[in-house]
Amino acid sequence: AKEELRGSYRFFEPEMDLQLRARRQLQMDMRDALKRDEFCLYYQPQAETLTGVISGFEALVRWEHPKRGLISPSDFVPEAEENGFIVELGEFVLRTACKEAASWAKPLAISVNLSPVQFQHGDLVETVRQVLRETGLDPERLELEITESVLIDDISRALDILKQLKGLGVLVAMDDFGTGYSSLAYLQAFPFDRIKIDRSFIAALHENKHSEAIIRAIVGLGRGLDVPVTAEGVETQAQQAFLAELDCAEIQGYLIGKPQPIGLLAPHLGGDEKK
Ligand code: C2E
Ligand code: CA
Ligand code: CA
Ligand code: CA
């Protein structure tokens, strides 16, 4: 059996080598792409559940590849996290989002995703402080979205950084709530300013009896903690109606709007400026 194993290992070796080479190539490509300004942000609206009035936007990174076209973050963010490039990319996203939001006619909220890797490397607090100073954005308009994976590795260090971030006056949201292992313990450990229900629960809403109970429980949890809840991935009016009935504060999803480049946001941003 040992011989077979060794044999099969040898068989896969060239393929692994190829994979490694492809990954190194992607890593170099990403660094060049940032220099060539190929990364850009799309913005997805977030709205009050009852009225549909837009309260802010989430910045979502895209790679406008000259040959491959628009590449979505699921195709490069994991790789960028593995090779550390996400620290640089994350800083670009933060700076770009804050700069653009600071120029909007309405002082709407801007959400930016942070990777766990940004907590482990670089000086995240100093970066955020500097970007706020540089762009002049009101810190209360900036909401940093983290997943519980930020808290898994070194919780005391992560909590310390989160507290320093809050000290800058920015808000912190727990993203993808309900998909992890100890989300409740983290809610106890840190005063989050928002809970975002993962879109898998919303997607299952009218097909899976349990998801209704889970969403109800999360919204109730938010009410008990006095933390506003946002439901992600809302695509239908039926989902919106259910969430409105629960008094879930905000919704985000294709029903309100898909992520769009900055140029297309004008109608949301300057709507009643003319009056
Ligand atoms: P996320 O933070 O949970 O972002 C929400 C994702 O759900 C976005 O995918 C958005 O386009 C998608 N979405 C929103 N509404 C709907 C809907 O109604 N239906 C469906 N089917 N999908 C919807 P996107 O832009 O592809 O981003 C995927 C993930 O990549 C994000 O999930 C986030 O984890 C990560 N990501 C995106 N931008 C950044 C970034 O700048 N930094 C970091 N660290 N991660 C990012
Ligand atoms: Ca997010
Ligand atoms: Ca999310
Ligand atoms: Ca996600």
TrEMBL record:
EAL domain span: 23-273
Highest taxon, organism lineage: Bacteria
Protein name: Bifunctional diguanylate cyclase/phosphodiesterase
Organism name: Terrihabitans soli
Phylogenetic placement of the source organism: Bacteria, Pseudomonadati, Pseudomonadota, Alphaproteobacteria, Hyphomicrobiales
Whole-protein residues included: 406 to 680 of 686
